[in-house]
Design brief:
heterodimer, A: alpha+beta, Alpha-Beta Plaits, Single alpha-helices involved in coiled-coils or other helix-helix interfaces, about 25% helix, elongated, B: mainly alpha, two-stranded antiparallel ribbon, about 5% strand, binds protoporphyrin IX containing FE, binds iron/sulfur cluster
């Protein structure tokens, strides 16, 4: 992965086209999380904190092995645990590494009003540029995965960067480096997709998981973090992974038809009023007729 | 208001005499509302479109605009509440208003002499007032949800989805009403704008545009000759 892979292809809240977009042909990067070989050791959680310079914050115990209920502004990588009872009565401990999915069609970016607070690089990474963030929280409304998190004191939103700073100098993300079982992989999107499909077919054919499959949801144009799941038909089991994530309808209506309707109405209204003034002119007061213009007739 | 409100001069022509239309407190409150609304408009439009994001720069940049927009929303709400207390009675819609509403093409064509006489506020002004009033209730409710959007749990995310659609749509409706209001009072109806600054209008102005109110103010019953010939 070269530095050129951080060429910007999309910019939030930006008037006009993206400067330099399409100059290069670049790798699309991808992180593969094989939930079937994750042991829930949380080495990736620690590596993420260490690399990104956050200290370990207080944990919230809720009778599972999970560190806290959901990711936080300073805790971008969280293993979600679920004790799942299968139809045959056997138990499975499902573990999924939750983080930003780096959607090809990112809802956070679509919703963001601030110029360049969110950018998408040609390599697929969706990155928040906190210096441009105005803290409106629209990205939290746009994201179908509950990822962007608000930090009240700084009034900024933070999330996983896919270690953009490491990737841009040819290193793999910190979490990948830390994983002891090899359940995390990093490479180009086609390579990771192929590896994931091979693993899923092994699970289907040899390991008794007929529903095993790859999670790369088409509703958001595919993602740059993909999962191998034992049960791809029920992704919700894995800490609430949405079955068919999409940019919320309300966000699409707001940024689509409503925008055009509103702009048309505002411009049309102003033009209409100008035309009215030119056609009919101002309303002027008229003198009171003499027979009414007298206080003497007051009753 | 009573006849005392009429400033009497010895001049023969009473057309130029002025009468009080808005009290000092009404005017102060109006401009508090107007300035807070304009702030909301500038900052709101900055978030609305990337092509208008520069509007945020003129009020101190994006983060400042985001910080202050909801607070100015509260100022505007307070101002509108005072307006409601002051004008609620004058803003009730009557049968006479509905008749005026049916004759609105004449009003648009500036043929005001064909219209039924109106009280302190005409039907259009009343619709504007109630549009802003009910619109603001929705803007306030949805605005508070957007203000503290990070405190909404993921399971209540539909509130975010509803709030953003409601807030943007209702803001657009109030912007439409606001534009018409500015056009009418600052451009179309001569004398209106000044009345909200100095509080007074000429008798002729009151007689022309708010005849029923005019006769109430000068304390005289309305002569039948002042009713439109239809
Ligand atoms: C009544 C209290 C109000 C509150 C608490 C409130 C709050 C908010 C909040 C929190 C946002 C989110 C975006 C941001 O601030 O960065 C917002 C956006 C917005 N507000 Fe308000 N607001 C209020 C009233 C109004 C009014 C009266 C208008 C009329 C012009 C308005 C117009 C807008 C617009 C146009 C947006 C942007 C919508 C978009 O991004 O598409 N707001 N408001
Ligand atoms: S809070 Fe999110 S949507 Fe708002 S400016 Fe920051 S990154 Fe963009
Ligand atoms: S998962 Fe959420 S925050 Fe990450 S790119 Fe997709 S929409 Fe944006």
């Amino acid at each position: 992965m070269s530095q050129a892979s951080t060429e910007i292809v999309r910019i939030s809240g930006h008037a006009g086209t993206v400067p330099g977009a399409g100059l290069n042909r670049e790798y699309q990067v991808c992180k593969l999380v094989d939930t079937t070989t994750c042991i829930g050791c949380k080495a990736c959680e620690v590596a993420c904190l260490e690399w990104n310079g956050y200290t370990f914050s207080e944990t919230t115990f809720d009778n599972t092995y999970q560190t806290m209920p959901e990711t936080a502004w300073n805790y971008w990588n969280l293993i979600k645990f679920n004790e799942h009872e299968r139809a045959d009565g056997t138990m499975m401990l499902l573990m999924r590494k939750d983080q930003c999915m780096h959607c090809a069609d990112p809802g956070c970016l679509a919703a963001c009003p601030a110029d360049a607070a969110i950018v998408q690089y040609a390599n697929g990474i969706v990155d928040f540029q906190e210096e441009h963030c105005i803290g409106c929280g629209y990205c939290m409304t746009g994201c179908p995965f509950n990822i962007p998190k608000f930090d009240p004191p700084s009034r900024k939103v933070f999330k996983c960067t896919l270690c953009n700073d490491r990737v841009s100098v040819g290193l793999e993300p910190a979490c990948i480096k830390a994983c002891p079982t090899g359940c995390l992989h990093f490479g180009t999107k086609p390579e990771m997709k192929e590896l994931a499909e091979t693993r899923a077919s092994h699970l289907r054919e040899n390991s008794g998981f007929p529903d095993a499959g790859v999670y790369d949801p088409a509703g958001v144009g595919g993602t740059h973090v993909i999962y191998v799941l034992h049960d791809a038909k029920n992704p919700e089991l894995y800490g609430g992974l949405p079955k068919d994530p999409r940019i919320p309808l309300s966000v699409r209506l707001w940024k689509g038809p409503l925008k055009w309707l509103g702009n048309l109405a505002m411009v049309g209204g102003i033009v209409g009023m100008a035309l009215h003034y030119m056609r009919f002119g101002p309303k002027k007061e008229e003198p009171i007729p003499p027979n009414e213009n007298s206080d003497e007739r007051r009753v | 208001m009573t006849t005392d409100a009429v400033s009497r001069s010895s001049a023969a022509n009473q057309n130029e005499e002025t009468i009080v239309r808005y009290t000092f407190f009404e005017r102060i409150n109006h401009w508090l509302g107007a300035f807070s609304y304009i702030y909301l408009l500038i900052t709101g439009l900055a978030f609305w479109s990337p092509y208008l994001y520069w509007l945020a720069a003129i009020v101190g940049g994006g983060p400042a605009a985001r910080f202050w927009h909801p607070w100015f929303g509260l100022v505007f709400t307070a101002s509108l509440f005072v307006t409601f207390v002051q004008w609620r009675g004058d803003m009730q819609i009557t049968d006479a208003d509905r008749a005026w509403g049916r004759a609105i093409p004449d009003y648009i064509k500036n043929e005001d002499d064909k219209l039924p006489p109106v009280g302190r506020f005409n039907f259009g002004q009343k619709l504007f007032f109630w549009g802003i009033f009910y619109g603001l209730i929705l803007l306030l409710l949805s605005g508070v949800m957007l203000w503290y959007t990070e405190t909404l749990p993921w399971s209540l995310r539909f509130v975010r989805y509803a709030a953003i659609l409601i807030h943007a749509s209702v803001a657009l409706i109030t912007i439409g009403l606001f534009l018409i209001h500015v056009y009418m009072s600052a451009f179309l109806e001569e004398g209106s704008f000044g009345s909200m600054i100095l509080g007074r209008v000429t008798r002729a102005w009151a007689w022309t545009f708010h005849r029923t109110w005019y006769y109430q103010v000068i304390g005289r019953t309305q002569p039948s000759s002042s009713l439109p010939k239809r």
